[in-house]
Amino acid sequence: MPAVTDAAAPRTTLSLQARIALAIGAVVAIGGILVLIAALAYGRHAAREAFDRLLVGAASDIAESITIRDGVPIVDMPVSAFELLALAPRDRIDYRVVGRGGETLTGSDSTPRPDDALPISFYGGTFGAEPARYVAVVRRFAERGYTGPVEVIVGHTLHARRALAFDIAQNAVVVLGAAGVVIAVFAWLAVLSALRPLGRIGDALARRTPADLTPLAEPAPREVAALRDALNDFIARLQRQLNANRDLIADTAHQLRTPLAAIRVQLDAVKHEDDPAQQAALLDRARDRLVALSRLLDQLLSQGLVVHRGDAARKERLDLRDVALEIYEASELEIAASHHAITLDLPETEVAVTADRLSLTEAGKNLLGNGIRHGVPPIVFGVSGTPQEARLWVRDAGGGPDDAVLSRMGSRFLNGASAGAGGLGLAIAHAVATNHDGQLAPRRGDAGFEIAMVLPRETPP
Amino acid sequence: MILRLALCLGFVAGTGATAQELSERLGPPDAAQEMRVRSTTDLAVLRPVLESFLDARPDTAIVYEQWLSNNLYRRSLADCEQGPPGADLVISSAVHQLVEFVNRACAASYVSEETASLPAALSWRDELWGITREPAVIVYNRELVPTQDVPRSRFDLLDILRNRSERYAGRVATYDIEASGLGFLFAYADSLEATTFGGLLESFGRTGAVATCCSAEIMNGVLSGRYLIGYNILGSYAFDLAEENPQLGIVAPADYTLILARGAVIPRNAENAALAAGLVDYMLSPAGTDGLRDAHLLTDLDGLIDKGAAAEAFGASQLRPIELSPKLLVASDRQKRSLFNDLWRNAFPGQ
């Protein structure tokens, strides 16, 4: 087994603010890179579109200016074409007009020609040592003496395109950067305001006196409210535990005081009695009292345990028949001592409940013990069930306890002298039944008295 | 003056068509560094500016070569494409050729405070800079042309050619656009500015006007009385000559006056590009522009009015600077030139 570090302080992980800052930073950074790439691509595309139109405009201008004179195409180069091209002020201009035979009519002989003879084709090339963009526009003639195409090629270098693309991308990045800053600031403010209730709850807890177990009343948004409500639940459980402990101590003191006083009186009487026979009788009575007292003590502890477990114990799925058998086995000594025959009545099929095994067993032992001690044989102990409920019951032929006892079975304080351990056993069973959303159901009939713990039945899986 | 005339005659005689007209070394003989400037500008005009540039740089010398514009262009292109390093700085009045030169990626880029201060229309790609402002003017002989005949605009010129053709026929001269790059540029710019150009060509043809090679020859002809009027003459030369010859009248046409900014480029394979850049900066600096103004190479609107070439009412909107932009590439287009030359030859048959 790995060594367990003793009393390790709970780990504090990265703050939520830092996490959100990281997340937003990552989003803005990744988004920024994507937008930068997109902006560059868009800028290049837009610049290409814009300046390609310029090229086509210039080439069309030149194509329009061609006339056929004596079977020869004559280009009266229009200034407007170059005015268009001069809109890219720093770019060098290359042009060429090619006749149907591939001969250069005017312009530069070294201007590259397109691969395909489309009406309009765009292509890249080099002009001198620089990359350039070209367009070729074909004008077809059907004139006397000249039938065929004249190809006008216009190109220019890429300075203006690059400048425009860069400009567009730069603007996009500036806008994105501003948006990123705004997003980050707003996210930061949102996180600060979202986390403020946590701080308030923490402060409220820190300010409390140790005895203050009232629920927290700080307002909180839904997410934080879950934490607050869980804390309040926890505080309520703590409050109940504390109450249970206090009650146990009070009960125990209350229940023990009377029998102890009685025993002391008897022992005092023994001291003042000279007759040995009377002395022995008094000692026997004191002993009986002590036996009863020890049983009472057991039950008080048992009640304390049950009440304690009511909140704390984990409930599990149980077969009530198993629980009954366990109770029966745990009570065998008492059964043997009572000389009664106890009949066990269990159904064929499982009777499932969700319950705390220990509480249930304690409660059952108390019910069965009451039956053995106070009941009139025949005594039957059993389990039965309807689709909605499960019953663990004890039946005897007697009349059962007084109505007064039954009516007080839910209350804590029972008169130990009058009701004794029997009433306390009922109180324990009642507490367990209540803890399991059930009830304690006494029934007096012609055949005798039956008391049952009725619990909600778990539906078979 | 005599030298210039002789040079012009020499060209007309057909010698040295592909070589420089003149080469001279300026600066101390033992200068540590030397740059080669090729220019269409007369050395006599530019000399004071170059000398004041060299005064501040005792270790520098300039080899100055004076070329005809078309020859300079051919040579510079050849140097760019295959030749050994040629000029370190090329200055030409035929700026459409320099635009073509830049467009062929033959020029080196250079940026300085001075070049950046040029208006956008007078520089291109930080490779071509307009260093002068020279109007295209009409010159006339004050003694032979009566005041009422002095053409204040192209319309006046058209009118006297139509109404007084018996006096002016054959006695109006202008550049031969096939021989002179600058002449072609002015004629081309005229053709873009107004429809008067067509009328002028027609009148020139009808009255037998003369097209010849050089500003010097035209102006000397005007002074001697052989011609009465010269059209589209570079103002810088005219103002220079008028200082000594008061009978030379100068008019900036009131309909519009073309303003040429002589261009400078540093060839990309220049060996002394830094020196050339220094000279460009100098010519654009206050000291340089003062020198250029004294040499009549920087004539603005106020200068035109001061010199009496333009009336007081002359406005800046009447000045049409020739933009240094890729639009000038049209002027270098093969078919455009050939169409334009055809048009010209129809007007000047047999010359």
From TrEMBL, chain A:
The chain crosses the membrane at residues 20-43, 171-191. It catalyses: ATP + protein L-histidine = ADP + protein N-phospho-L-histidine. SMART domains: HATPase_c, HisKA. One of its GO terms (cellular component) is plasma membrane. Residues 251-459 form the Histidine kinase domain. It is found in: Membrane. It comes from the Bacteria. GO terms for molecular function: phosphorelay sensor kinase activity. Residues 192-243 form the HAMP domain. Keywords: Kinase, Membrane, Phosphoprotein, Transferase, Transmembrane, Transmembrane helix, Two-component regulatory system. It holds the Pfam family HATPase_c. Its EC number is 2.7.13.3. Its main location: membrane. It is an enzyme of class 2 (transferase). This is histidine kinase. It comes from Roseivivax jejudonensis. The lineage of its organism: Bacteria, Pseudomonadati, Pseudomonadota, Alphaproteobacteria, Rhodobacterales.
Automatic annotation (TrEMBL), chain B:
This is Bacterial extracellular solute-binding protein. It holds the Pfam family SBP_bac_6. Transmembrane segments: none annotated. It comes from the Bacteria. GO terms for cellular component: outer membrane-bounded periplasmic space. Keywords: Signal. SUPFAM superfamilies: Periplasmic binding protein-like II. Residues 1-19 form the signal peptide. It comes from Roseivivax jejudonensis.
